[in-house]
Design a protein that fits this description.
The chain has helices spanning about 10-20, 25-60, 85-90, 125-130, 145-150, 160-165, 200-205, 210-220, 240-255, 265-310, 310-320, 325-360, 370-395, 400-405, and strands at about 65-70, 80-85, 95-110, 115-125, 140, 155, 175-180, 185-190, 205-210, 225, 230-235, 260-265. It is of the alpha+beta class. It folds into two domains: about 10-60 and about 270-405, no CATH class; about 65-265, no CATH class. Strands 3-4-9-6-8-7 form a six-stranded mixed beta barrel. Helix 2 packs antiparallel against helix 10. It is elongated and about 105 Å long.
Length: about 400
């Protein structure tokens, strides 16, 4: 039957009435869709917060730098190690400051006869003067003279202080470290580094920083003038990726290809981004499945609603309502349930993220993520409308006379 059609305001009012009349079924559908929206919004918000916090902490810990170390193929009897000539050739090249480093595994034996793995890190003296990301919380860093003479002095990181000394003051104390072949080295503690920021404190391991020359003297494997890595400290305006490429060409010319690799900080940040994308995909997929489940619930509720409301549908048609009006009416009901679920899910996710930021300040300041909000709501609404098409089409195709006779 043709007629003037149902006014939009009346259609919206009737949609709300239908949702309220079927509130028990509607509540289940809204909760299911809200759970899916919550999962997507929460994962997108948390991954963004975590990635931003880790990137910020990584940058503050490492700074603008390029790391040169052995290639994974440069191992075995004929492997080539970095040496003093490499340090000299890289110093001042492209405006960098070359900081040679050594890292060797040792063991600390506690008074209770417990073995604690410790990394013995070699570095130049006066490192805080060369690298602004390195600061000393108490005591001092060993001097350039102590580094040149291989003095048996060291600086502990926060994890080493906790593991080796507990709450005791380590300054002036002697740490006895053991190599796996039995070689021992006594190190006098002259300084303590501050705790690493955020997640890096949880992932940290005990480290004792000593002069490179001390490791040369006691190490069973590292010879004088050899290094495990060279950290290239860049000026703030330098582009790390460009410098890494130039340094890689320089090393290939000196030693041949596949001997050493130069990597910028961006390599690690890209790895963090890849992990974040994987987590977003997995949890996002779970959220979409939950939304689809909620949408199926919406469809079932509306299909049963069509049967229960046949007389109402027939009356609307008799009063001039068109098939388009009926179709729009049921789509409005699907949209209403989807909208309620999406709003509930997004609000719950943002409240939870805000609470997590208060509990874990390392995650950084809380900000509403427009992308997470938009994507979550958009998926929920589209899914709800998609699954509302079938009930709407069924209602619109009914014969008005049959509907009015239905009891």
């Amino acid at each position: 039957m043709n007629g003037p059609g149902l006014p939009p305001a009346d259609a919206i009012r009737m949609a709300w009435q239908a949702v309220w009349q079927n509130r028990a079924q509607t509540l289940l559908s809204v909760l299911a869709m809200g759970l899916g929206t919550f999962s997507i919004a929460l994962m997108l918000n948390l991954s963004e917060l975590a990635a931003r916090a880790i990137s910020s902490q990584f940058t503050s810990t490492i700074g603008n730098s390029v790391l040169v170390q052995q290639d994974t193929t440069n191992v075995g009897e004929y492997s080539v190690k970095l040496n003093d000539d490499d340090v000299r050739s890289l110093s001042g090249l492209y405006g960098v400051t070359a900081v040679p480093r050594i890292a060797e595994p040792v063991v600390y034996q506690t008074p209770g006869n417990r073995s604690i793995p410790v990394t013995l890190n070699g570095s130049p003296g006066d490192l805080p003067r060369l690298d602004r990301t390195v600061t000393v919380q108490s005591g001092r860093y060993f001097s350039a003279f102590e580094a040149a003479t291989g003095a048996a002095v060291g600086v502990l990181n926060d994890q080493a202080v906790r593991d080796l000394f507990g709450r005791r003051d380590p300054l002036g104390k002697t740490v006895l470290l053991h190599y796996l072949n039995g070689v021992r080295v006594n190190v006098v503690v002259v300084g303590v580094l501050p705790p690493a920021p955020g997640i890096f404190q949880a992932l940290g391991s005990p480290q004792v920083l000593v002069p490179n020359a001390l490791i040369w003297r006691v190490s069973p494997t590292t010879r004088r003038g050899q290094y495990d890595a060279i950290e290239l400290l860049l000026t703030p305006e330098a582009v790390a990726d460009d410098v890494a490429q130039q340094v890689q060409r320089h090393l290939d010319l000196r030693h041949g290809p596949h001997r050493f690799r130069a990597q910028s900080l961006n390599v690690f940040l890209e790895l963090i981004g890849s992990v974040r994308n994987l987590l977003e995909f997995v949890f996002g997929a779970l959220g979409v499945l939950s939304i689809v489940g909620g949408s199926l619930g919406v469809m079932n509720v509306m299909l049963s609603s069509v049967t229960e409301r046949m007389q109402e549908i027939g009356l609307l048609m008799a009063l001039g309502g068109t098939a388009t009006d009926i179709n729009r009416q049921f789509l409005l009901e699907a949209f209403t349930q989807s909208a309620l679920g999406s709003v509930l899910g997004v609000l719950s996710a943002n409240v939870l993220v805000a609470l997590l930021v208060l509990i874990v300040p390392a995650l950084g300041p809380y900000q509403i993520n427009p992308l997470a909000t938009g994507v979550s709501i958009g998926i929920t609404l589209v899914s709800g409308l998609f699954f509302g098409v079938m009930p709407a089409a069924k209602a619109a195709s009914l014969d008005p006379i049959t509907c009015l006779r239905h009891e």
